[in-house]
Amino acid sequence: MCNFFNKIYKILSKRRNIALFVDGPNIIRPKEFRIDLQKVKSMVAKGGKVKISRVYLDQFASDKLIEAVVNQGYEPVISTGDVDTLLVSEAMEAIFNDNIDVIALMTRDTDMIPVLSRAKARGKETVIIGLASGFSKALSKAADETILYGERA
After folding, report:
1. Domain ranges in the chain?
2. Which residue would you say has higher pLDDT here, 101 or 14?
3. Domain 2-149 belongs to what topology?
4. CA distance 85 to 137
């Protein structure tokens, strides 16, 4: 786990403004994953100012999960439709925000590849924070940097 956080610090250590978007159904909802989102955010914050930190959830998210997201320092965004659509829409707003330098996505979803491509085209640095288990090589190749949660040193 230490290698994971060292990579975050190295990649984001240039004191930039960061937008961090977490794909809740793909990252925190599966029972087999134990993600400490507060630790992820605090490490990201060591490398820059986290201007946006959101976790996207569907309408079936429990009140307990929503409360946990808030307690870990994130803004929960609840979608009554497809979570990906809302995440992409808000990530695109950040891409066109001149005050954001880095787009960081915590996801396993290859549907986010066009977001990464658009961010790069606008001169943003892109970071994917993924899970070592079952991570997509295509998603990794689309980002400037990839950090795998659960990666061994």
Report:
1. 2-149
2. 101
3. Rossmann fold (3.40.50)
4. 22
